[in-house]
Amino acid sequence: MSIEYRRPFWVTLTALSVLLLGAVMAAGGGYLVSLGGSWYYLGAGIGLLLVASLLFARRRSAIALYGLLLLGTLAWTLYEVRFDWWQLAPRIDLWCILGLWLFLPFVNRQVGRSGVWRDGATGVLGLGIVAGALMASYSLTQDDHSIDGEFSNAQMQGDTAGGIAQRSASEWPAYGGSRHSDRYSTADLITPENAGKLEKAWEFHTGDLPGEGDPHELTNQVTPLKVGNTLFICTPHSVAIALDADTGEERWRFDPSINRDAEYYQHMTCRGLAYHDGAAVAATANAAEQPNQPAARCEKRLFLPTNDGTLMALDVEDGQPCEDFGDAGTVDLKAGLGEGALGVYLPTSPPVVTSKLVIQGGSITDNGSVDSPGGVVRAYDVKTGELVWNFDPGKPDATEPLAPGETYVRSTPNVWTIPTADEALGLVYLPMGNQTPDQWSIPRDELAERFTDTLVALDLATGKVRWEFQTVHHDLWDRDLPSQPTLVDIDGAQGKVPAIIQPTKRGDLYVLDRRTGEPIVPVNEMPVPQGTDYGDTTAATQPASALSYAPQGPLRERDMWGGTPIDQMICRIQFRKLRYEGDFTPPSQQGSLIYPGNVGVFNWPSVAVDPQRQLLFGAPNYLAFISQMVKRSEVDPDEQMGGGETGLQPNLGAPYMVRLQPFLSVLGLPCQSPPWGYVTAVDLRTMKKVWMHKNGTSRDSAPLGLPFPVGTPALGGPIVTAGGVAFMSGTLDYYLRAYDLKTGKELWKGRLPAGGQATPMTYVSEKTGKQYVVQMAGGHGSFGTKIGDSVTAWALPEDK
Length: 800
Fold this sequence. Notes:
- This protein is α+β, with helices and mostly antiparallel strands.
- The chain has a domain at 9-140.
- The chain is globular.
């Protein structure tokens, strides 16, 4: 063969690459078709194989055929997703890049022996490239996922004539900001006009970081309290620390030296402390109190739940235990729980405190065993630590304190998040969880079914059930109530209505009359998928609130996503192989797609409510999980157990284990298309969504730190302020953000040294007059963010 007929290197390389891509697409596409999926990938694969053969033969028709294939791909893309950028891009990116390569003169001229570049074949290819560029450019201007509304100026002025009781802008005395658990502050110095000027004021490091060989996952989820001029925090190993509110300097530290060796700790975390002001209670009860009396020791006290199952009372002044509470400052929460409580019963959330009681629940390790400690909730005397009543879901009417030597009913639904109390009504509201194991319900009795995923209102004085409202029937999806409920008085036709708002993992916001549990926003029962293949039963219907952030319709194959057409195709194959019939698809042995997944639309961060403006601010998430039931007899004994959210779960005592995993592509990206996370606001007067915008970038989760504005999941709570600014962290990128409450516009973001999977708080300093915003940046192992130990405060500069 003469030299001019030899196939040039670039043509050979291109042909081999196209051949490989075509073979993968054809094989995968054929398998997808056999599963009932799209024919596009098979057709595209065959087309690429033809292009490869023509390239090997150095035929100009290879260029024309590839141009036609590209144009066909663009048409198919428009048919499936129209101009949705994040869905459009991975369908055409690889093919447009390959088209550009074939368009380059030094490659293009060598396809064929004439050396011609400007011919009809190149024209067809050029048309495809230009069309792809125009489609991509136009799609960047479109956003089908947002709601671009805003609140009126009148509503942003708020209810100046009445509304909430007076609160101090200088205090944040409870986990939820106040006893209403609304995460609202009357601080108003930071506004939409000046929020962009916020700068770091101080930073403090707790020193509580994972040690070498530490077997337990650390998650820093604490929201600081502020009382006087002191902040109070706790660390994953239950260390309580007091900080100067203006400088961040440490004032005292108390380390309870918890037992760190328990085998089954699911997480080492502490979401916060609780505060009680005995002097204020006494002053309210006794108007004739003599002024200027010296404060008694522990008159103001903090309550610290520890991961090894105790509740401690500490003096706010020095952090030392209050000797008059329990046994030298400590109540053993493992009492009455029976065997195996250490490391399985975890009081990771702070108690709710009233004038007389401190009420503590606790989580039970997910999917550990069918024989686990019970989910009892107990109320102790706030001064003495004496047990006043206990609510045992297995014996709900027997609320008198458990006799010595007796145990609570085992394996009952628990309260792992934070309750809320309304002392005026004499009620405490418990957001109940599931009975473990989550997906295996055979051992559940009538009472377990009654209280699972139920908001239960108890009488504060006796612990007796006053009313209850169930959000999921016969839960097989880990849809426990994760969020602290919020109290707010909502404007109605006949005046203010005392309401309670309960967010859920499904995305429903249940708005109930907190006196009776009757829905204010309508709730309807909807039919759901039926039947399991592992011997369990399913509920015929499930409740659904008319105010909901549940996904709009089921996932479809066209909703599958990836970084390239290849991994997107693999996600489509995974999707077709799973059982999926929409929301509440039961778990199965083949593997079921659960959407929303067990992280939920809403989780422990809850929502924030501005009671003056009558608006709600939240951060819904959308991630799917896979739930697969596995016969214990078929499990590889060498397979490692998971940690509660992912992996193979032990389900000891059950014939089936469960394998839980996020629905991810081979590249580790979610298989469902973005956005995966938003910020949103609701007008509580009309119960309408006013605005909703994607939130968060891929800066800390994408290669090279590219900050694509995809809208990432968030696991950190929101707060709102009288200044008209909301704050929130928790996204996969490491920022604390400020938002304009009127429009949802991002006003500012402050860089964090680690993941911000915690709820911020804010206060106005009594000494300097500055408004500070404080955020814990400690990361979250299950969420995949960097672990840290930093508490950071921001404030406006002196000139504002």
